[in-house]
TrEMBL record:
Keyword Transmembrane helix: yes
Presence of keyword Cell division: no
Record's subcellular location: Cell membrane
Matches recorded under InterPro entries: MetI-like, MetI-like_sf
Chief place where the protein resides: membrane
Keywords for this protein: Cell membrane, Membrane, Plasmid, Transmembrane, Transmembrane helix, Transport
Domain ABC transmembrane type-1 span(s) in chain numbering: 83-295
Record family assignment: Belongs to the binding-protein-dependent transport system permease family.
Pfam families: BPD_transp_1 (PF00528)
Signal peptide: none
Gene Ontology CC: plasma membrane
Membrane topology, as annotated: Multi-pass membrane protein
The name this protein goes by in its record: Maltose/maltodextrin ABC transporter, permease protein MalF
């Protein structure tokens, strides 16, 4: 009887483990299906489209062209201009956002720690929809009735066509993006500062280290993982900038603000060349992956 009981328990335990494994897979199935539908299938479809010439006429078959769409990237002047504009915007905007966000986080963490209301106000811009932010800044930059030119007039300065001037258009877009996304860096840096250990700073003060030396030798190394994540997320987001440019300048004047996302949109829908648009999208994806991998290794987040 004892042998039968032990065998029954073993069989029951095996069935229970088998059912648990099957239940685990069953519970993961909806997430996997959603991932396949929203991520993997569109990616495979984009790869397939990138090696074809697709006619705007749906009755005509797709023509396989191999790497021809990718070869066009090296001779397309508009693509190169969009790539240059995207690089300028990403480097300048993310750098300014990081410096301002880190500075605000250090200020509020050290001197204004109890002012929760001020922290909440500073985070409002990042909570607004990008379309609403773009429309708001379009009204601010409006040449005749905009708030910014009204301030310029009261200061005795000449009004400017902020979003329509060749020399000021990119600057205007960067300012709007910095206003919206500096709070994102600020929030991450503030959370990182709140998690710093106290003991190393107490030891540094006993050793007579200045605040500046503590910042470089303690704060920055401790914040390194948070800084890496913040910069990585912002760079990835800046590479796909679309809303601000589309509403504020439409890529002009003279293509000075045309970025890659806007150019992909124009190629796909205005020029009716979705195959070439898919090739540009894959290029942006490749650049994003390469930069992300290099950055994480540089910050030693991965081996």
């Amino acid at each position: 009887m004892k042998g039968k009981s032990a065998a029954s328990l073993a069989i029951g335990g095996g069935l229970e483990r088998w059912a648990e494994r099957r239940l685990r897979y069953l519970m993961l199935a909806p997430a996997v299906l959603i991932l396949l539908a929203l991520t993997i299938f569109p990616s495979l479809y984009m790869f397939y489209a990138a090696v074809h010439r697709i006619s705007p006429n749906p009755d005509l078959p797709w023509q396989f062209v191999g790497a021809a769409n990718f070869a066009r990237l090296f001779s397309d002047g508009q693509f190169q201009a969009a790539l240059r504009n995207t690089a300028i915007f990403t480097v300048v905007a993310v750098s300014v956002e990081f410096l301002l966000g880190l500075g605000l986080a250090l200020l509020l963490d050290k001197y204004i720690r109890r002012m929760t209301f001020l922290k909440t106000v500073l985070m409002i811009p990042m909570m607004l929809p990008p379309i609403a932010v773009a429309i708001t800044w379009k009204l601010i930059y409006e040449p005749q009735f905009g708030v910014l030119n009204e301030i310029m007039y009261r200061l005795g300065l000449p009004p400017q066509a902020w979003a329509g001037d060749v020399d000021l258009a990119m600057f205007s877009i960067i300012v709007a993006d910095v206003w919206q996304w500096t709070p994102f860096i600020f929030l991450l840096m503030l959370a990182g500062l709140a998690s710093l250990p106290v003991e190393p700073y107490e030891a540094a003060e006993l050793d007579g280290a200045s605040s500046w030396r503590q910042f470089w030798d303690l704060t920055i190394p401790f914040l390194k993982p948070v800084i890496a994540i913040a910069l990585l997320l912002r760079v990835m987001d800046a590479l796909r900038l679309f809303d601000l440019v589309f509403i504020l300048t439409g890529g002009g004047p003279a293509d000075r603000t045309k970025v890659l996302s806007l150019y992909i949109y124009q190629v796909a829908y205005r020029f009716a060349d979705p195959g070439y648009a898919a090739a540009i999208s894959l290029f942006v994806l490749f650049v994003t992956i390469v930069l992300s991998t290099w950055f994480m290794k540089r910050m030693r987040l991965v081996e």
